[in-house]
Write the structure tokens for this entry.
Amino acid sequence: MAPFTPHCVLVTGGAGFIGSNLVRWLLEHAPDLRVINLDLLTYAGNLESLSDVTTRHGASGDRRYGFVRGDITDLRLVRGLLRDGLQGGRGAPPVPPPDAVVHLAAESHVDRSIMGPAVFVDTNVRGTLTLLEACRAELAERPRPFRFVHVSTDEVYGSLGPGDPPFTEATSLAPNSPYAASKAAADLLVRAYVETFGVPAVTTRCSNNYGPFQFPEKLIPLMITRALADQPLPVYGDGMNVRDWIHVDDHAEALWAVLTRGATGRVYNIGGESEVPNLEIVRTILRALRKPESLIQFVNDRPGHDRRYAMDITRIRTELGWTPRRRLVDGLPATVEWYLTHREWWERVLNEAYRAANALYLEGRA
């Protein structure tokens, strides 16, 4: 397959954790690329994560970046962006119509999906459907080279036992949480639009991301911020649930490889090849912060809690030449340091970040 060189990428959910890091990575590594960021700015979307990007690449910079606040379920809005790009005005830079979509916008926190599944179906399923419909209609009216990258998760595969081989792209889908089920449904919609309508789409399934600007409801930033306040660190069950960890910058590089060299209709697993029990992650954070392990508080296990994830990344390595660069042993301490030096970023969102934790297992505890 010939390499695809996009001129403008529409990133959905570009103010979130992975999205903001991807937007920054794209603008730094593809100097001729322009980026439109479409984000509704719900609780985990934060434009402060992109303040440096706006300064360097927005209206007062090289004008390669533009932001639109909007909902991916708004078909008229998405159709307009695909048709017209950004026309500028009010100091905003004009950006041409995109020839690629990297779809990251999603409700993504498993705990919140247990508390309220409906919004996950609305955003993750109906939102993906809307984007696919918009791309299909746009390409029917204005055919052009185009790519749609749907960013999914290893959680669609379900759970592995201790001795099971890692997930491959051929592993059956067996989601166990409402979040994972909504992402699996979206994955199947993407497949259907490739097979039925010829939409040039690719799906990626990634393991657990970590790094700067992650909303502090996920494991690593939750533990860092609570440890800094000498608060109990809630650990589900026995803490031996295993996750594969990948640095968000490695994920961004992998998404670029898939966007520019991936084959239409393919699924690509993206993983960090760093399987670690959650309890070991927590203990590493405590050591880095010089905090006692007595802060660890074991709580009732999460319903449907997958025991282990592991990713076989042979396909993306052999077909696209991508492999993770950052080892967890280096990336995790650097992430802890980032949260130490960016307290003003995360302190403003702590009340919302802790909402799910308080509702599920911390309410009424010290």
About this structure: The two ends are 58 Å apart (CA to CA). The first helix runs from residue 17 to 29. The first strand starts at residue 8 and ends at 12. The mean pLDDT is 94.
